[in-house]
Amino acid sequence: MFDPANPVPHWTSSTVQRVASEPTLAGAAVRYANLGIPVFPCVPGGKQPLTPNGFHDATSSARVVHGWWRRTPDANIGLPTGVGSGILVVDVDIHPGGSGFEAFEQARAEGLADGWGWLVRTPSGGIHAYYPAERDHEQRSWQVPSAHVDFRGDGGYVIAPPSLLEVDGAIRAYDVIAVTTQPVKSLDAVKLRQFLEPPRSRHVARPTGLPPNGCRPEALARVVALTPEGGRNRALFWASCRMAEDGQSRANAVSYLMPAAQYAGLPDREIESTIDSAFRIASRLGPGSRLGPTQRNEAIQL
């Protein structure tokens, strides 16, 4: 068990290994539920939720879970993170734009990420490091694209083993690759982010592919939807800024950008927080300012 004070005592050192050994995704999903762990279905081979309210619909009711996977036997398993499920996850990305392994190892060397309970190899070659969540201690999800490291806490979710994902035309699994024999401890996500975050920038870099002039919500939404992990939140923030500087309402921005960001795989709460941050900055700068790449701006606040 993680710790006697852990709010979810059904997480033990062998929980994920047992579930990951299930021969079917339906069997694994029901086993999670029987352990009291809330889950929800995502598209087969992908990360998008199949439930109307995404991770907010997660449940540990074995009857409901069995019904979901009876309808979609190959659905991937979504696992909410944070206090409700008892786990926090540090997502170390690896992609053509860079790798988060160096930053993660540096954080571990500083004692900021060394208490994980188990590691899961993701289909892209990165890792998910799982930590116990503390009772009544909410820690919101965030991203640090420059370090290629994301944090999934309250307001987020991960795809859990033994789910499958299509990467470069091949189907690959989320595999448990290590379970610690050492004492585990919860993560201070604020300190970890402060360590990983570069100095506050005076500029918001322009994501590749955005239209150079004017505000075309359809084009902005398309770029957000097609931006891969590591740059999704940054693209959403930029697109929200563009709509705000153009005088678009927040409601209009949400109507265009929320579905696009959901398609990209961002959690709803994170999407709303990012859009709110962009519009808050826009109102602070005033109507005479442009939120462009050469203007003073703030770092993304999640």
What report would you give on this structure?
- With 302 residues, this protein is an alpha+beta fold.
- The chain folds into 2 domains: 182 residues, 2-Layer Sandwich (Prim-pol fold), CATH 3.30.2250; 104 residues, no CATH class.
- The chain is 33% helix and 18% strand.
- It is built from 9 helices and 13 strands.
- The strands form 4 sheets. A 6-stranded antiparallel beta sheet has the order 8-9-3-7-6-13. A 3-stranded antiparallel beta sheet has the order 1-2-10, sandwiched between helices.
- α8 packs antiparallel against α9.
- The longest helix has 18 residues.
- The two termini are 31 Å apart.
- 44% of the residues are buried.
- The N terminus and C terminus are likely disordered.
Question: What value does the Rg take, in angstroms?
Answer: 19 Å
- How would you state the average pLDDT, rounded? 82
Which consecutive residue ranges, at least 5 long each, have pLDDT under 50?
Answer: 1-9, 286-302
Side by side, the strands of the main sheet go: 8-9-3-7-6-13
Helix count, DSSP H or I runs of 4 or more residues: 9
CATH architecture verdict of the largest domain: 2-Layer Sandwich
Helix content: 25-40%
Termini separation comes to 31 Å
User: What is the β-strand count?
Assistant: 13
For the report, how would you describe the main beta sheet?
6 strands, antiparallel
Shape: globular
CATH level-3 fold name of the largest domain: Prim-pol fold
Strand content: 15-25%
Integer tally of domains = 2
Q: Using the coordinates above, name the CATH class of the largest domain.
A: Alpha Beta
